[in-house]
Q: What sequence folds into this?
């Protein structure tokens, strides 16, 4: 007796990609990043997502912004209380920017403020941003400005310039030939 196998329907590639990347925490984090970027655009900053701060990308800032004056602001996004508890590496980012902020949803910020142990984990110089009900980011606590070492500032600004380049290893996969006809 011959066996017949039923052919499985393959899902389109687009559906597979969205199915893998639609965790509520990832969506919340991306929304917080965008809200922070739009808020700092208002103050004259150019914003970049996921910039490597150290070599080999071991430490990446969620959002980093710079002004023409060279002022650097770094924003670390925390999508939940569990994310805030589990991640301590953001404290190493304090040396890379003049101002450092933590961005939370309104519910996450409320839970952190209610818990004294969690509230103590936010250093005094770090500011707090909270996403309001109206969809705009608001400053709940202003960050204290600290001057960054000149070598560190140059390193970060060079990384931002390299990342913004139209042709780089990040944007081009291979060389292209260019011919000019006379």
A:
């Amino acid at each position: 007796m011959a066996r017949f196998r039923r052919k499985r329907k393959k899902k389109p590639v687009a559906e597979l990609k969205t199915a893998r990347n639609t965790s509520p925490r990832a969506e919340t984090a991306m929304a917080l990043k965008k809200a922070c970027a739009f808020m700092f655009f208002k103050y004259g900053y150019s914003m970049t997502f996921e910039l490597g701060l150290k070599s080999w990308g071991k430490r990446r800032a969620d959002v980093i912004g710079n002004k023409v004056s060279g002022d650097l602001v770094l924003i670390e996004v925390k999508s939940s209380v569990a994310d805030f508890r589990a991640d301590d590496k953001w404290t190493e980012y304090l040396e890379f920017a003049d101002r450092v902020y933590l961005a939370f949803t309104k519910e996450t910020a409320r839970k952190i403020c209610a818990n004294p142990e969690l509230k103590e984990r936010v250093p005094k110089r770090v500011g707090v941003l909270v996403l309001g009900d109206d969809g705009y980011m608001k400053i709940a606590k202003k960050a204290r400005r600290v001057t960054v070492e000149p070598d560190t500032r140059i390193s970060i600004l060079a990384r931002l310039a390299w990342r913004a380049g139209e042709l780089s290893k990040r944007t081009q996969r291979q060389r292209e030939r260019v011919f000019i006809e006379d």
